[in-house]
Amino acid sequence: MSNFFSFSEYLSNLSIHGCGNNTSDYGMYLRDISVMRKFADHTSTLMFLIDYKTMSYPFMDDNVRQVLGHPKEAYVEGGLEFSLHQNQNFSLLNKEIFADRNKYLSEVSNDKLPYIRFSMGFGYRDERGSIRKILQRNTITELTTDNFPKGIFGFCWNITDEDSNPKIFHSIEILDRDTREWTTILHKNFFPGIDPEELLGKREIEILKWMSDGLIAKEIAEKLYLSKYTVDTHRKNMLHKTNSKNIAELILYANRLGLI
């Protein structure tokens, strides 16, 4: 697999050098879209297809204005470049999220590709200049010869009213074909504009200091006159906010920033 430092570098390379088979058949996806149109209309869902080589939308749903806040013509004429310009968190997508996704794709077998979905919550500027919170989920339509996405089929929802949290996230999940349940392979949170040193609250840092001294939740609760449930909740929140897999990683994160 070739190494690219960013999503924009990959798109530029794909546009110049191609990707093996330069034609894509979106017929299957267009048939699926025609079946799902009524569902999309009733649930304010935006459906779309993106071709990374041509930086275009082979399909863009009529629901685009109510979800993303721009007319359909803007995407037909401006393509992917127009859309990326409205993404308020493109710097995260361009580097960290791109790296995470392609690391996973380099390790997964191609037969699992139809059962993998990528999700991202991000800020998006509408035509009035307001920022909307968008949830996007997509699958890969096809891979290039060196195992990079050639295009995606996806869905978007405007979740501004349901989620005003500044948190940005991305995740990778795989579907169990027997149970029809999704298993999370990776989930990361980002808090753009928030100083990492201010990410944890005063009480959380206080609890974390005791954890670093080896105290368990029950002992910390007794020292701070809290319930064990409250201590456990703070612990879970700290792990979630810092993308730490366990307490050891969380303590390392806090030590690195000089918080404890």
From TrEMBL:
<dbReference type="Pfam" id="PF00196">
    <property type="entry name" value="GerE"/>
</dbReference>
<dbReference type="InterPro" id="IPR000792">
    <property type="entry name" value="Tscrpt_reg_LuxR_C"/>
</dbReference>
<keyword id="KW-0804">Transcription</keyword>
<keyword id="KW-0238">DNA-binding</keyword>
<dbReference type="GO" id="GO:0006355">
    <property type="term" value="P:regulation of DNA-templated transcription"/>
</dbReference>
<protein>
    <recommendedName>
        <fullName>HTH luxR-type domain-containing protein</fullName>
    </recommendedName>
</protein>
<dbReference type="InterPro" id="IPR036388">
    <property type="entry name" value="WH-like_DNA-bd_sf"/>
</dbReference>
<dbReference type="GO" id="GO:0003677">
    <property type="term" value="F:DNA binding"/>
</dbReference>
<keyword id="KW-0805">Transcription regulation</keyword>
<feature type="domain" description="HTH luxR-type">
    <location>
        <begin position="193"/>
        <end position="258"/>
    </location>
</feature>
<dbReference type="InterPro" id="IPR016032">
    <property type="entry name" value="Sig_transdc_resp-reg_C-effctor"/>
</dbReference>
